[in-house]
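Materials and Methods. Structural model of Beta alanine--pyruvate transaminase. The 453-residue sequence of Beta alanine--pyruvate transaminase from Hylemonella gracilis ATCC 19624 was retrieved and submitted for structure prediction as follows.
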Amino acid sequence: AIDASLLAQTAAHTPAHTPAMDAFWMPFTASRQFKSAPRLLAKAKDMHFWTPEGRQILDGIAGLWCVNAGHARPKIVEAVQKQVAELDYAPPFNMAHPKSFELAERLIQITPAGLNRVFFTNSGSESVDTALKMAVAYHRARGQGTRTRFIGRERGYHGVNFGGISVGGIVGNRKTFGPMLTGVDHLRHTYDPARNGYSRGVPLHGGPELAEDLERIVALHDASTIAAVIVEPVAGSTGVVLPPEGYLQRLREICDKHGILLIFDEVITGFGRLGAPFGATRFGVTPDLMTTAKGISNGTVPMGAVFARQAIHETLTNVDSAPHVIEFAHGYTYSGHPLACAAALATLDTYAEEGLLTRGAELESYFADALHALKGLPHVIDIRNIGLVGAVELAPLAGLPGKRAFDVFLQCFDLGVLVRTTGDTIAMSPPLIISKAQIDQLVGTLADVLKRG
Ligand code: PMP
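The predicted structure was written out as tokens:
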């Protein structure tokens, strides 16, 4: 049970909103609610944040699914400090710095075989738009310029740039922004609590049949018009929605049959989240392009990367033009930024030294046991998990979708635990260094809040 005096005491520590806070237009924020009770984080170490008043918060979501090795890891801190003093910036067009090559080389040692060309970006959204452009350019370079259509999926989240929201399947992120990319269709999502409710790990039902949506879309538009399919191996931001058994395999088969590229958006699922280096590794299905960000640099310095099959890279770079001509007209001022590369190299060291890319597999059943013990608590309608990511879905309050989960998030924060809400689902994706005792604290605090009804 929760000590009411503790709750009152922590609430009293919440700083009041001040006029100085008005200039900052906060991203994806219920800002009226925030202004009424700002939540500030001033410090972080390993599994914890601290508020400006010194209140300790257990980080149950690895920042925002990104700080996979935990906060302020010494090797990463040191590497970034050293790098900023040595080479703060280097232009990435027609030149480079050694760490960008070193990092690319290190990364392809842990990606699925075949994905051995790396293009650096600064975020997941940029990785997604980069991959979409690569897909269209690849087909065009092979004389198949009619292949311009993309197929995304309902409930897909692929960042917030125009390409990403076009292939993404979240109505709220699309509806106020006018026309999207043209020629985009969506597969159905794989959320099916009626058949797959309370599944531990991969759900059993409906995989191949849901993947057949792709055949129906191909029949409608003809394969010769379709560039790529993009899906998250596990949809994170829309409530941890897993691919049922056989689903990704069947998508791969249909793509191969029709010459359509398969893009996995592994911004969340990459770098150990599912108990394997990547979702592709975990599910044994290799895409043609793979988008990443977040865990690549442990969230320390913004970075993203797109991994491509060698054939795609070759097609786009072996062009018949004078040597001084740029082959692929795409890139960012901060592609392969020296600080991001230094952070990522030290991150990879930390992952390797501590076995973090597979630690989620070791903890999966402990985490699953803890989560699934919440079944039967008030308003809980589904629980889903894989590796070190899990979700508890609540029945929405009548007329106020998202409110119940948001209130749970606020109460957990007051009790010193950070979880994430998406719709009426509570998501958890702790740093991969979490201990069993901390899993107990994370899930136990959520249980205490849920028991209040
Ligand atoms: N794709 C996926 C699957 C994501 O989960 C996210 C972010 N949560 C993005 C893309 C966008 O990443 P960013 O916010 O770094 O642009």
